[in-house]
Amino acid sequence: MPARRRARRGLAGPGARGAAGAWSLAIHGGAGEAREGPGAREADETRREVLHDVLAAGARALAGGASSLDVVEDAVRALEDSPLFNAGKGAVFNARGEHELEASIMDGRTLAAGAVANLRGIKNPVTLARWVMERTAHVYLEGEGALAFAREQGMPLVAPDYFWTEESWSELKRARLGARGARTGQPWSGTVGAVARDRDGDLAAATSTGGTTGKLPGRVGDSSVIGAGTYASNASCAVSCTGQGEYFIRAAAARDICALVEYAGLDARAAARAVIHKKLERLGGRGGAIVVDRAGAAACTFNTGAMARGVVTSARRARVALSAAERL
Amino acid sequence: MPARRRARRGLAGPGARGAAGAWSLAIHGGAGEAREGPGAREADETRREVLHDVLAAGARALAGGASSLDVVEDAVRALEDSPLFNAGKGAVFNARGEHELEASIMDGRTLAAGAVANLRGIKNPVTLARWVMERTAHVYLEGEGALAFAREQGMPLVAPDYFWTEESWSELKRARLGARGARTGQPWSGTVGAVARDRDGDLAAATSTGGTTGKLPGRVGDSSVIGAGTYASNASCAVSCTGQGEYFIRAAAARDICALVEYAGLDARAAARAVIHKKLERLGGRGGAIVVDRAGAAACTFNTGAMARGVVTSARRARVALSAAERL
C-alpha cells in the first residue's frame, strides 16, 4: 500500500511490507464510555502517563532487539501493576466480593500459547500464563490447579486485599444496585493488552483482566480464551481485545480478525473494523481491539466512546489517546 | 458441486445448496489409534452400537422437525452416558486421580454459546453448558462457580465414583508409569461431539470430554473453548473437534475451519482437511473434526489411525466407522 494511502487510513507503521528491523508496539487499557465525576480527569491523566511509560519501556526494549513475546509480557505486567486498569492490582470484584483474574499470551512465531483463569492471589496473571506456555505440556490452566502450579513454580502469592481499590469497590456497590450477573453498560471494561512486532518480524499478543464487576463466580471472559481475546500468528497479525467478553468469545474475535487478514486479504485495520464494527455490533457487543500486522502496521479499533490506547513504532514516536475524538 | 464430484470427495449430504427441509447429523466419539488387547474388539462393537443408536435417535428427531441445538445436546448426552467414551460417565482421571469434565455448545443461528470446565459431579456437562447459555448473561463458567450455578438451578449431582470405570483407571495406571502432565500418544482421546443441520437450515455443535489422562488439575482442553473444540455459524458450518486439545486451542481449529469456508471459499471437507492435515500436523498435533455445512454436507476428518464417527442425513441412511480404512 502506498504510504499516502496508508496514512489516510490511519495506519501507523513502518510500511506495508515492514522494513527489516522495523518494530511496533500497541497497548490498551480497556474500552468503555468516558468517565465523569470527581477525580475522573486526574485519573485519566495518570492513565495517560502510565500508557506513555509502558510505551517508552517497550520502545527501548524493541529497539534494543528484545523479542515481541518479552515486550508484550512486560507491558501487560506494568498495566497489571497499576490500580487504574481492571487487571492485576486494579481487578474488579465479582458477585461474591472476590477477585478472579484471567490472562493469556501467544507467540505468533510458534503459535505457542498460555492461558490462566479463575486466579486468586496472583499479582501478574500474564506471567503465570507464560509459565503455563513454557513449563507445562498444557495451554490452559484454571482455578486451584493454576494456583497449585504457581506455588510449585515458586511464584509469590499476594493476599486478597492487594486487589482492593476504592474504584473497584465503588463499582461493585453500584453493580449491586443493578441486576445480578454480567453488567452491561458499565463505564469501563479496563482489560489491558499488548501486541507487538519485533525486529525479527515475530508477532506476539497478551491480554489480562479482572473480568466484569459483579460477574458470577467462576465466570471466564475472553481475555484468557485463545482465539477470542488474544491471538497471534506470524501468518497474519497479533490481536488483543477488550470489552464485553461474552460477545468476543461468541465471535472468536481475535482469531476472526487474523482470519480476515489471512484468508480474505483485508489489512489489519479493515479486519479489526469488520469484526468490531460489524460482527460484534450485530450481536450487540461493545468493545475494541488492538492489532499489529506482519508488516508492523498498528491499528486500534473500538465501538465504544473511549478506549485507553497507545502506539509506538520504529518509525513514529509514541502516542496515547483515550476518547474516540482523539487521533492516534 | 456436481453430485458425482461430491460423492468422489466423500461428502455425505443432500446437495451443495441443501434441499429445503433437508437435515444432517454427524457425531464422534474421539480420535486416536486402534485399540488392541483383551476386550478391545467387544468394546469396539459396543461403541458402534452406541453410535448407531445415537444416530437413529437424532435422525428421528431431525426428521420430526427438532432443532439442531436440541439434537446435538441429546446426542452428546447419550455419548456422555456411555462408559465407552471419555466424557461424562467414561471421563478419564487427572494426575490427582480425580475427574474434571468440560463441555460446550453453540447455536449457529444466533452465535449463542455456553461452556463449562473443571466440573466435578456433573453427569451431563453439555446440558450445564446449555443452561449457562440460556440462563445466564455469561458464556463460560468454571469450577466451583459452575457447580454452584448447577446446584442453584436444581441440577442433580453425582458422586465421584459415578465416573469410575475399569478402563479409565487402567489408563491412569499406565499414564503414571509415563511422564507427568499431558500424555502424548495415548490410545484414544475419546472426546465426544455432535454437529447438525436441522430442517430449518440452522446449524449447531456440541462437544464434551473428560480431558487427558493424567492431566494437571485445572487443565482445560479445547472441548470447552468456543472457537477451538466447538464452533457453529449459519454463515459457514458447525464443527466439533477431538484430539490433543492444546494443539486445537493454538490453531483455534473449529473457528479456523469455519473461517476457511466463510472467507476462503473452501467446502467444509476441504476446510477440515486443511486444518487437521496441514495446520495441526505442522504443529505436531493429532486428532480430528466433524463438520456439517450450511447445505447439510457432512465430513469427518482425522490424522490418527482411527476415529469413532457416524453420519446420517435426510438423503442417506446412518453409517458408522472406527478405523481410517473404513469409508463412511
**Average pLDDT reading of chain A:** 90
Order of helices and strands of chain A: HEHHEEHEHHEEEEEHHHEEEE
CATH topology of chain A: Glutamine Phosphoribosylpyrophosphate, subunit 1, domain 1
Strand order of the largest sheet of chain A: 4-3-2-6-5-1-12-13
* Biggest interface between chains: A-B, 49 and 49 residues
Instruction: Just name the CATH architecture of chain A.
Output: 4-Layer Sandwich
Shape of chain A: globular
Into which percent range does the helicity of residues of chain A fall? Answer: 25-40%
The SS-based structural class of chain A is: alpha+beta
The tally of structural domains of chain A comes to: 1
Number of helices of chain A: 9
Major sheet description of chain A? 8 strands, mixed
Beta-strand level of the residues of chain A, as a percent range? 15-25%
Task: Report the top-level CATH class of chain A.
Answer: Alpha Beta
Distance N terminus to C terminus of chain A? Answer: 20 Å
Supply Rg of chain A.
Answer: 18 Å
- Residue ranges of chain A: pLDDT <50 for 5 or more in a row? 1-11, 13-17, 179-187
Q: Assign the CATH superfamily of chain A.
A: (Glycosyl)asparaginase
> How would you describe the oligomerization state of the chains in this entry?
homodimer
